[in-house]
Design a protein that fits this description.
It is built from three helices and two strands. By secondary structure, the protein is mainly alpha-helical. It has a two-stranded parallel ribbon with strand order 1-2. The chain starts with a helix and ends with a helix.
Length: about 110
């Protein structure tokens, strides 16, 4: 039971990083805008009814906090426990964009 919970907690940041890769690099959106996030969450009197569960600001804030904290804790934990396949997945999905960003700012 604990092993299953551990793998689920390790998978959540990887899943969110994979969603970012698919949406930004390949243009594939798996979460529609009106399902979880919506600009019209707060009724402003403009005639639009809220259709999402949370506002866009809260959605992206929680999304990136989960990714940053989860990736750091997950990569440290997997390196410490020597789960090299999981660690490689964290490095490829999370480390490559950071490396490309830094290389682009230094050489570009």
């Amino acid at each position: 039971m604990i092993n299953c919970l551990r793998k689920i907690l390790l998978f959540i940041p990887l899943f969110l990083l994979a969603l970012i890769w698919l949406s930004v690099v390949f243009g594939i959106e798996f979460i529609p805008d009106d399902f979880l996030r919506d600009d019209t969450f707060e009724y402003r009197g403009d005639g639009k009814k809220p259709s999402g569960l949370i506002s866009m600001g809260w959605f992206y804030t929680a999304y990136f906090i989960i990714i940053i904290v989860g990736s750091l804790i997950g990569s440290i934990y997997t390196a410490y426990k020597k789960y090299w396949v999981w660690f490689g997945a964290y490095i490829i999905l999370g480390g490559l964009p950071v490396m490309f960003f830094f290389l682009g700012t230094i050489f570009g």
